[in-house]
Write a structure and sequence with these properties.
It is a single chain. The chain is α/β, with parallel strands linked by helices. The protein contains 15 helices and 5 strands. The protein folds into 2 domains: about 120 residues, abc type-2 transporter like domain (abc type-2 transporter like fold); about 200 residues, no CATH class.
């Protein structure tokens, strides 16, 4: 008798689960998505770091050095610049993560004193990438220098030397101590903004249906856009307060600098807020229950964490995941907030990311607002 009752309850629960098709799909798809993201994106192995090269020598010795860096898969010689200012601009924008400066007399140094000096500059705003790239740059240089030593010793009449013929002098910009807090605190600003706004607003519309109060709102003279703005404004204020809290604590407790314009940081945060609010509002219009709305939001949060550069460097991911990351608004905001806080850049260095945030926010919020209007009608 007990087993029969138990089986009846199990059967009833399975029937209810099967009837809720949307929740069932979410429950089945979410683990698969998590598996793929964790398998491919969750890696700290740094590869294909974009490198800007300022080669003032242009001789065979300089080309041989570049071939040594090109042969290793740690760096991708993406930019060939004509000045240190151009190299700095690329690093400020985040297009390049490192820069190699070869002096005009590099080849002559190797022939004369036997030692050629080059400079290797790293963007320290991401300590994970910077520390690995720093070690790789030194290792590649030492390996290349050892090869030159062996060739010299093999030549008749070439004396052996204990001094390596290539001296790579490294310098880390923006975060010389490679402090991980410099990397995480700006990222937490973006994550808090998205989590808070999307999760809290996900119940904004569906809550009224669950409580049966939506009819009271419909019969009032309030317009759909007024309802949307009225429901979202408290969450906007709360999210901005949390942003100020994180920035203040990060600066005071973790000593993370804020080198950029505070008004520009606030403006970029407001742009990003529109996307988070739109995602939560859209989930609220698509779901039938608050639980379903929160699950829908979590389906967007997981890709945002792994495909935005929040934890893991995008350069280490497969090409198809790097392409998919361009559909994640948090990716652009993290570039903006880290550049503003750590590098102190102006709007010209991040205008592409700001335009992308504006487009994402406009599209997502427009779709969500149209869904609210349709549901109210």
């Amino acid at each position: 008798m007990f087993n029969t009752r138990l089986l009846s309850i199990i059967r009833k629960e399975f029937i209810q689960i099967m009837r809720d098709k949307r929740t069932l799909v979410l429950a089945l798809v979410f683990p698969v998505l998590q598996l793929f993201l964790l398998s491919y994106a969750a890696t700290n192995d740094v590869r294909n770091v974009p490198l800007a090269v300022f080669d003032q020598d242009r001789g065979p010795a300089a080309r041989a050095l570049l071939d040594a860096y090109r042969a290793a898969d740690y760096f991708r010689l993406t930019y060939d610049v004509n000045s240190e200012a151009e190299m700095r601009t690329l690093i400020d924008r985040g297009d390049a993560r490192a820069g190699l400066v070869i002096p005009p007399d590099y080849g002559q140094q190797l022939k004369g004193t036997g030692v050629g000096h080059v400079a290797f500059v790293l963007d320290g705003s991401d300590p994970t990438v910077a520390s690995t790239a720093l070690a790789a740059a030194q290792q590649i240089a030492q390996s290349y220098a050892t090869t030159i030593l062996a060739d010299r010793q093999a030549q008749r009449g070439q004396p052996a030397s204990l001094t390596l013929p290539v001296d790579v002098r490294t310098q880390v910009w923006y975060n010389p101590d490679l402090n991980s807090a410099y990397f995480m605190v700006p990222a937490l600003v973006g994550m808090i903004l998205q989590l808070l706004t999307s999760i809290l607003t996900s119940g904004a519309v569906v809550r009224e249906y669950e409580r049966g109060t939506i009819e009271q709102l419909i019969v009032t003279p309030i317009r759909p856009w007024e309802l949307v703005v009225g429901k979202l404004m408290p969450f906007v204020i709360l999210a901005l307060v949390n942003t100020v809290e994180v920035l203040a604590l990060g600066t005071w407790w973790f000593n993370v600098p804020v080198r950029g314009d505070l008004l520009l940081i606030a403006g970029a945060s407001c742009l990003f807020l529109v996307s988070g609010l739109g995602i939560g509002l859209l989930a609220s219009t698509l779901a039938n229950t608050q639980q379903e709305a929160i699950l829908t939001v979590f389906m967007t949060i997981l890709p945002s964490i792994f495909l935005s550069g929040f934890f893991f460097p995008l350069e280490a991911m497969p090409g198809f995941l790097q392409a998919a990351s361009y559909l994640v608004p948090l990716r652009y905001y993290l570039v903006v907030i880290r550049a503003l806080m750590l590098k102190g850049v102006g709007i010209e260095a991040i205008q592409g990311e700001l335009i992308a945030l504006a487009i994402f926010g406009t599209v997502i919020m427009t779709v969500a607002a149209l869904r609210v209007r349709k549901r109210l009608d």
